[in-house]
Amino acid sequence: MARQCDLTGKKANNAFSISHSHRRTKRLQHANLQSKRIWWSEGGRWVKLRLSAKAIKTLNSRGLQAMAKEAGINLNHY
After folding, report:
1. Which of 3, 12, 46, 69 would bridge with 28, disulfide CB 3.0–4.6 Å?
2. What is the pLDDT of residue 78?
3. In the chain, pLDDT over 70 holds for what percent of residues?
4. pTM of the model
């Protein structure tokens, strides 16, 4: 399973770690992913998703069904 948000598609970003002497080494900035059980009222059941913190905040205002439709996700498979 990829480290990626199920609804928004957020994933790791390439970046540099910069030391005190200003040497640069490559590193990854991972998305803040959380495993979350969310009540899907249209389906009448719980759905377990791996979401970024930003997606969890957006879910509260827009709703699960609307975000899943926009992302092109069939919630019956989760």
Report:
1. 12
2. 86
3. 99
4. 0.81
